Amino acid sequence: MLAVLFVFSLFSAQLLRLQALDASPVASAALKSRLYIGAVPAMRGDITDVNGVALATSIDRRNVTADQTAVPEYIKKLNGVRHVVGVLGAAADLAPILGMSEAELTTTLTGTRQFVYVAKGITPLNWRKIQALGIPGIYSEQTSTRSYPSASTVASLVGWTGGDGSGGGGLELLLNTTLNGQPGKSTYEQSQGGRIIPTGEQQTTPAVPGRDVRLTIDNDLQWFAQNAIALKVDETLALSGTVVVMNVKTGALTAVATYPTFDPTNISAASGNLNNKAFGEAFEPGSIAKVMTAAAALQEGVATPATPVTVPNRLSRAGQSFRDSHDHAVEKLTFAGVIAQSSNIGTMMVGEKVPPATLEKYFRRFGVGQMSGVGFPGETAGIFAKSKDWSGSQRYTVMYGQGLAVNAIQAAGVFQTIANGGLRVPPTLVASTERADGTFAAAQPTKAVRVITNPVAETLSQMLEFVVGDGGTAAMAEIPGYRVAGKTGTADRIGANGRYSGKTASFIGFAPADKPEFVVAVILQNPIRGYFGGSTAGPVFKDVMTYALQEFKIPPTGTPRPVMKLKVDDAPASSDKAEAALKVDSGHRAKTGSR
Predict the structure, then answer these.
(1) Which of 1, 442, 449, 511 has the highest local Cβ count within 10 Å?
(2) Residue 11 in this model has a pLDDT that exceeds 70
């Protein structure tokens, strides 16, 4: 008997030992089977203008879900008595809060599924109202919706988000990693039926919100530029229009407006290309390229503003006959007059003194054929072949802006370089990014590139002042009280079929010309009612630049416009007078129509 008891005791001890050893893994496995792990979405960071005005922001929302098997247990007190009202009662109570019909909700809440969406994107206030009802099986998951307070004003620049909340285009896409943040994790214990066990294990790892990004864009200036280009596109029946405003010293883009635009909250309804045309549309620059040709000629010493240029009505080169925008008698102009009157022939006659490889070098230094460095989605580098590959006629056409293509940002950068004393500062869009502690870290400044010397840039700037006025092609770009320098452009436009169709009209300039603060570039694609750059784009430039100067409190110009001869006297000027071109009489300015 004692032996039997001894054996039984040994067996019991072994059984208890095995149970103790195995209990932990078994319990752990059972618990694991009851745990639900879900993601806690991170709140996306804001995109703001340079002053902190929200251009894109996320708003807290809730998605309402239901366990259909639990809703029938809904109980309410009616006249002090508890009654099971079930699915019909739940539908009746939820309908006014969610703005849905009772019939629709009854269908959604009926069934055996333990997870269905009832409504998405409701406000936290409405979710609190639903919670107060105490309907079993009704839960919510945290989410957010993206809001764009400036709506279509910055749509093609700021972009939009996709269905998963990540960036779908524009800066939302470019800055997606910064804006997205890190999702958290929610772990809770659920019953076999899928319901949360209130006393069970629950653990939440909070999400890390995305960081805010502050742009260089000024929202007020952006709004004004957007409206100005929209009005001009509608007035001229143009296909599209673009305005770029750039800070001369820093390269900061203070406005990038394009039209037509779209609603960033309803991308499915948008028609046409959603890319930002300022970065993504390449066009032949036309006469604004003459500025680069002039810069090369001045820097290489093959011409001065006073260099006489006898301009015929036609000029034969490379087996082709070249002409200006209008027929004219032989004109005796200075090089300054050639630029003021936007003469193709005169530009060619001076530009051909610069070797092709040298001319190409200057164009590339100005940023032609290169990406901006912003990294904007859909950006084009334009088209600019190497000089060794230029055809016979292309050697000459590039001088006045045909046979190459640029985007509006590149074109604005050419004038930023001249206004900044020959120093090109690549454009920037991001001013600062939020740190983890909530402070902002300024973006690293871009590396400047010396293109031409400061004296040459000043000389060219003075030449460009005569484009704006009686002797030039952009009288409608003049701003009372301020000296303005700029250049018109009117180029044949390449259509969707690859053939020339319509025109590209442009005016790009800077002000005040003696102490430049801003560059404004205006581009109109295929305007029907008037297509010369001076008469179509010029007035938009005037309006936007005037607004910018006033908003940023830039004082009026305190110095007179320089004096420069545009026509050669019948009696040739002496070499001394030619060298003193900036001081000679300007009373013989040539009259010409806008181009």
Answers:
(1) 511
(2) no
Which residues, at least 6 apart from 25, have a Cβ–Cβ distance to it below 8 Å? none
What is the pTM for the complete model shown?
Answer: 0.85
Question: In which domain, by residue range, is 446 found?
Answer: 219-263+273-583
Q: Which of 4-18, 208-222, 554-568 has the highest mean pLDDT?
A: 208-222
Q: What is the dihedral of CA 43, 44, 49, 50, to 10 degrees?
A: 80
CATH of the domain at 88: 3.90.1310.10
Q: For residue 524, is pLDDT > 50? A: yes
Both 475 and 392 in one domain: the answer is: yes
518, 245 Cβ separation under 8 angstroms: yes
Residue 138 has pLDDT above 70, yes or no: yes
Looking only at the bridges linking them, the beta strands covering 47-48 and 213-215 are parallel
| 91, 226: one domain | no
* Domain termination site, one of 162, 182, 208: 208
- Closest-CA residue to 190 (of 120, 119, 134, 137): 137
Rounded CA gap, 287 and 533, in Å? Answer: 9
Instruction: Provide DSSP, 44-91.
Output: PPPEE-TTS-EEEEEEEEEEEEE-TTTGGG-EEEETTEEEE-HHHHHH
* pLDDT at residue number 586: 31
> Residue 571: which pLDDT band, with cuts at 50, 70 and 90?
very low
Do 148 and 293 fall within a single domain? no
Q: Both 285 and 146 in a single domain?
A: no
3-state secondary structure 438-490: CCEEECCCCCCEECCCHHHHHHHHHHHHCCCCCCCCCHHHCECCECCEEEEEE
When pLDDT is cut at 50, 70 and 90, the band that residue 590 belongs to is: very low
pLDDT digits 0-9 by tens, 399-424:
999 999 999 999 999 999 999 999 99
C-alpha distances (whole Å) from 220 to each of 39, 223, 257, 540 are 39, 5, 12, 16
Lowest average pLDDT, out of 10-19, 315-324, 396-405, goes to: 10-19
User: Is 398 part of any domain?
Assistant: yes
How many domains are there within the chain? 2
Instruction: Give the sign of the dihedral formed by CA 94, CA 98, CA 99, CA 102.
Output: negative
Q: Which two tokens stand for residue 100?
A: 């849905």
Over residues 38-60, mean pLDDT: 92
Contacts of 67 (CB under 8 A, 6+ apart): 113, 114, 115, 136, 137, 139, 193, 194, 195
- Domain annotation covers residue 27: no
Same domain, 292 and 195: no
Hunting for tokens 């701003």 — which residue is that? 479
Cα distance between residue 446 and residue 413, in whole Å: 13
Are residues 320 and 340 both part of a single domain? yes
- 188 shares its domain with 231: no
Q: Which tokens is 487 given?
A: 């250049």
CA 491 from centre of chain: 25
- Within-domain flag for 487: yes
